[in-house]
Design a protein that fits this description.
Organism (chains A, B, C, D): Stutzerimonas marianensis
Order of helices and strands of chain A: HHHHHEEEEHHEEEHHEEEEEEE
Protein name (chains A, B, C, D): Ergothioneine biosynthesis protein EgtB
Shape of chain A: globular
Largest interface: A-D, 37 and 37 residues
Largest sheet of chain A: 4 strands, mixed
Radius of gyration of chain A: 22 Å
Helix content of chain A: 25-40%
Pathway (chains A, B, C, D): Amino-acid biosynthesis; ergothioneine biosynthesis
Distance between the termini of chain A: 36 Å
InterPro entries (chains A, B, C, D): CTDL_fold, DinB-like, EgtB, Sulfatase_Mod_Factor_Kinase, SUMF_dom, SUMF_sf
Strand content of chain A: 5-15%
Oligomer: homotetramer
CATH class of the largest domain in chain A: Alpha Beta
Pfam family, one (chains A, B, C, D): FGE-sulfatase
């Protein structure tokens, strides 16, 4: 974001456009929660999951804390304690309410949270209709950041809703009317060649990007090959059938400890019924689609699968080299599958780089050379998480299309599985 | 209950009366939940707490499992999986859904649970209007057990609601219209003398009692003295002021470990604000009433207080000897305080034996000589909990009046504090 | 011990005798450790176990802390820090070194500990040769307590050594020259009848007893029957074969949780090799002796076995009634089996009441009516452990014969198994 | 190691030389343990620490498992169970004895372990005097690997001995005769400039290197600056005095959680006595030397310090660029300080790159492009640990001099502190 600070003053038309976009993004969050019952909004099914009503409030809090309070004269919070309850992890902005206790709070209830949203939305409309002149640039940059933040939470909402409903032996569907997957057969993997050399990696230019995508810098990349599509459920089943989860030589030491301690024998949400594999999806329990990309695997499982397949995961630089000249097309939130699906082949260049599943890379999430976090509390957005996590690239079936780009760095701890994460193979040329 | 098996066949008038009582008890449970928001019904604030909607469903399940399924021909469950979801701990009746996960289940929602209740209520009305002749006695006994069970859960509902709301920094009141405590000054403790000898302890006769209260048997009780009232908040404050929580010599070894590990320095729900003690109650946060009985203390704290005061806790036999010729009057659920209150003195015999707070006794919860649990799954009701728990006597401000009696044995693990529990002093004569 | 306070001044002959006994008891502790390697002295195999060199030092510390420091003018400790390192749990006497960390301390080494013992022994000889007149009675009482304390640790040493060596896949024997078990066939259980009534329970009179055995008081005991011998390994095998560990209806709720969480399917130290049961003993791994008493079972297992056998555990009062007129004969430390063995039948009255294995009773370890702990730090000896534990009676094959009596109350938490504990059946007459 | 496979057949002189080196390295391990008491050899002070006698046995096991068993005809193990007890983590070579239980095993004792060493040494002498011709090259490579492995454990032994003795309130010195630190004043940091570009990183050529140091490959490195010496205790004290441990904005999120959960306020082994900082060293407790390099800090602390100082940690490539043309001189095991010391300034190029303390880098421990682990069980040596760890460079005061080189990659989890680890600052040019 540091680079954005040098942008010029916004025109009125830009403000209008931004307000429009603000309303659109805000509406999408509410549309995502519309199919839920009140009770569904309250559950925290594990410490990493947040209750949907917390998400709805927190993304409003972000606008209140970083825009309304500093820039809207005379702004009155709806309830001062919300600043504590809905602060996620900004230690330099008061004391966040403990994450693992978010599911212990029944009030404010769902209706109260919507009242809070309306309160913030009205005030944001006021702010954007006549922003204080000297701060207009910073305000627009922060609004954009707030919208990108809300889009991240739209994906988190869908991940968390899936996890919450999957705890329930009733196995309720989030929506029965999701768009069904196309029936497509996936051919054997074909390899695309990429020539190495010094490459420019990271974001530069006008469009929005998170601070962690900058600065654009040079990396030396060796020649490599990348598979033309994602690994499928069918391929992953072969790995399981070959004893993949029982062969220590395929696993990182931490991974081997993890699968044994947790008793993992298959991806998250897979269930065996009547001698056939099924999968819990946002449309309820479904027979496993062998041509669809494998999803809800940890980094450890992705890494072990790649080793078993005689390949490896791509580095994030390799992935970015491959993706940088591909169009941003794919199975996103707007496709309304909310589940990865098989792709139509053949395809110019590697398919499924964007959408379907986040692709685990071989790269630890660490700062780029010369990285500088944003100033103030917003500097806590990305930088402080740069330890113990791996980078994932490309977005997934729950990511809003306008949210993703080739330089986007997502990150999760290597044992996490509730995000829509899969893998693509790479190897030396 | 073993003794109930010999009762005679019920008359039709008895059935009518029972159905009336059934409706009344069932209505009370719903009245208790009426002030809650939907969201409040979903929370499990610690593993020992259950979400209110789980309570509402479980007490209906009890009638389904032990009456409708065995005795009502053609009974159809509303949803077969409820038998799994709402079984609390009856291992011999299928596999109970794991207790600690009750708060992870958003469906069935509150409205569904009420539909389940109505379904059971209709079927129970059918069963009680024309019970199969040969089982009528057993049916009536089980209905009575089911109602006593529901009354236990009425108290549990209030304990759990208090705990759920107390987690919330908003400190919401369950009800703003509860009956306020009378302003009464408590005099110094006076001691009542009781002469020892062989005494009959436990339940016998026609009325209802749980299996663990039987058989009536003889115990030798030494001469003893019992305080004329409960220990007050004011007295407990003196214990705190005297360094009670910092003096290892006052504590059982397990208690000393517990208070240090948990960081306890006062009863549960006490909070210090602006240099004054307050207490979270079902009416919200209130200044501490120094004349009211101390409440929400663990056995360890009760035991340490008694040692500090140069006294001890009564044994359950001593308590029963004192209570057996006292009228069952006191501050119960029906008093609508839902909080222990000071008592009007003087009083014939010890005051506050019934109601206000459960009184920790010095006795471990173990079977009486000759104890036999009920037959079948109902045998799991009490007997299997006879380890690691202490007996409490007398009922509390959340106990329905018709539920308590002098022989009633309540039990909790010694570190538990969320029940309405306090203490009364005893000593050698 | 309160009752001991009234004893008269000791004669010189008594002092001589006490010094003799002092030397004898001290020598026994060292004889117990003689077969160990230096390395064996250092291990703490679980938090409940102490390294043998810690035991050797702690039992010397007891004499230093409670006799030498208060009563021997000019006494100089060998090292002041030992007072911290070897204080077990006397919170009112300084800060005990954390129990779970005893195995992290390599120094003082074994030779240093023996130097400490000699230092204490020399000073104790000085003290006993000319005790200050006005304290002579108290000194003699404390010496006796110190010796009883050391005898308790002799049994603990053997329990702990067994546990330490049993962790080792080499399965080393503590001693290869232990006296082998007699080959004796145990007949079916026969029942002895006991008539109920008001009975006197607990210690009174001149001999030594711990404070928790007092005061002698009355209890009402119903008629009961007691088995004529302990439950055998063969009988316990039938319980296992009958699915005892898989039937929830046989278990207390806490016991059921414990065996499932810990994965218990047999007593501690049992191992299955080549389709036959073996048992780790102080003489190494041995085939299971089906006629020997079952040992190393928890209270939960003893309780479940009794339920399976259609019987129950005796209360501690019942046990004491039965034992009070039996001679104190049995398989003790001095028998040099260090393992329970089958008994020669028939027998006047119940056999094996003393020695072989501690017998779990149905009684929680709580104070007798009118109980008063010793004054000062010694009051922490017993009283503060009176929660969460069950009483065991009768001593075992590792108990010094002179240490046990009919009123002796041992106690362990219900899940503990590393002590030599078994059971005897009781039932209603 | 893959690259070593192409080396030519060894000459006899090489074998002689290797045997000589074998004896020397083996003798060093025993010299390290010579000052220990038998009891010290048994302790495992935390799961990451191993008892010294385990180290002594394990480094012998390595030769048995990977050389004697496959290549010495007729080799008889001293005890077959040692193969289980002393396997550290080679899952493909039998089942390793659980790491956290190494401290529960008193036998084999210290004398037995030395017998095992002699047994292995004799057999190794046999093998090296006439190795089977067709395997001679592989044998020599494995012997070298075994010796490098033993050198790693020499450093681990010193780390573990320090940790073991530091648990003890007696604070015993490992050796009183260690060489004292020179009294040297450290000037302010000066910065060395390094010009960026494509650089070759990693090992190539004849000498020994671990597989994880290969293959040599290109990386693009930006211009950077490196401090001319390590961060000192004095500088680190300023960080503490400035509230470093209380300012969330200086810390990675995982680091902030770690220091708060563990209660860290200073490096490991620092203690405050009489208002002055002291440090537990292998020579016992010493006043903190303000000019000596700070040591025993976690990655999180190193990272937070660097942020506080307005700088950052170097990447491992940057470090290697700087070190690759520096002589391998420094404060190593052979210097006999066994503690980092101040350096004599000025210095050609950055000082203290080798020896004193391992330098935390900013780089996660991940495979180099094209990395291939060794074949078979030896492939578990490095590769499987490539997750969740950070790279450290340069060796320390406990590293044998012949063991280190500029390409050497050490790795630890970011919260680990018991290794001799400190830091050097870097920044953008």
């Amino acid at each position: 974001m540091g680079n954005l600070a040098e942008q010029a003053q916004p025109a009125l038309a830009d403000l209008d456009f931004l307000l429009q976009r603000f309303r659109q993004v805000r509406a999408t969050s509410e549309a995502i929660c519309a199919p839920l019952q009140v009770e569904d909004h309250v559950i925290q099914s594990m410490p990493d999951v947040s209750p949907p009503k917390w998400h709805l409030a927190h993304i409003s809090w972000f606008f209140e804390a970083f825009l309304l309070k500093p820039y809207l004269g005379g702004y009155k919070p709806l309830d001062p304690i919300y600043d504590h309850l809905f602060n996620s992890y900004y230690e330099t902005h008061g004391t966040p309410f403990p994450r693992a206790r978010r599911g212990l709070i029944s009030r404010p209830g769902v209706a109260d949270v919507y009242r809070f949203r309306q309160h913030v939305d009205r005030a944001m409309a006021d702010l954007l209709s006549s922003p204080p002149r000297q701060h207009a640039g910073e305000i627009m940059r922060r609004v954009e950041l707030g919208l990108q933040h809300e889009q991240q939470h739209q994906e988190l909402l869908l991940m968390d809703i899936k996890h919450i409903l999957a705890q329930n032996p009733l196995q309720p569907a989030y929506r029965a009317d999701l768009k069904p997957a196309p029936k497509l057969h996936q051919d054997r993997i074909r390899w695309h060649d990429f020539t190495g050399g010094v490459r420019h990696i990271g974001h530069a230019g006008d469009g929005f990007a998170f601070d962690c995508e900058t600065p654009r810098h040079r990396q030396f990349v060796e020649d490599f090959q990348l598979a033309d599509r994602l690994v499928t459920n069918g391929e992953y089943l072969s790995f399981i059938a070959d004893g993949g989860y029982a062969r220590s030589d395929l696993w990182l030491s931490d991974g081997w400890a993890q699968i044994n301690q947790a008793g993992w024998h298959a991806p998250l949400y897979w269930q065996r019924h009547d001698d056939a594999w099924h999968e819990m999806t946002l449309a309820g329990l479904k027979p496993l689609d062998l041509d669809a990309p494998v999803c809800h695997v940890s980094f450890y499982e992705a890494d072990a699968y790649a080793r078993w397949a005689g390949a490896r995961l791509p580095s994030e630089a390799e992935w970015e080299v491959a993706a940088s000249d591909q169009p941003r097309r794919g199975n996103f939130l707007e496709s309304d599958h909310l589940q990865p699906v098989a792709t139509r082949m053949p395809h110019e260049g590697p398919a499924q780089l964007f959408g379907d599943v986040w692709e685990w890379t071989a790269s630890a999430y660490r700062p780029y050379p010369g990285f500088r976090p944003l100033e103030g509390s917003l500097g806590e957005y990305n930088g402080k998480f740069m330890s113990g996590q791996m980078v994932l690239r490309g977005g997934c079936c729950a990511t809003p299309e306008s949210h993703i780009r080739a330089t986007y760095r997502n990150f999760f701890q290597p044992a996490m599985r509730w995000q829509f994460a899969g893998l693509r193979l790479a190897r030396e040329l």
